[in-house]
Fold:
Amino acid sequence: MTKALYVFMNGIIDYAGMFPPAQLPMSQAFANYNKYLHSDDKEMLGRFICPASGLPDLAELMSQYEPGENKVRLSILGAPGQSRHEFLEKLHPAIKRIQDFQSEFSGQSQIAAFEIRLPEALVAADQSAELRRLYQQSAE
Structure:
């Protein structure tokens, strides 16, 4: 494999075993991810995709995890809200779960991304000023 191809392929495949089509339970999805993390092709493995609501369950599994030299890289998915108010209502508990998880497992994991869908009404209607206010409120 050329160096350019190696760099391109490094971390290219995120593991979303809890989501369609596999829809595995958290314990099985994490066991698979852990197995792949220690395989010969581990360089291609990216992040373990986990909903913010699943972080307490992941914490139970992580308490038994032996990372060795391989930290678990995570992409956390927040629950979307249909309105600005609902978005903020769901965002703050998700951030709290992330902070709690990271404070306990920072030596074993790295939260590399947090993804959350913006309220569709704000995006579809070109509400740039409203999106700016939403961004500012989410940082509070």
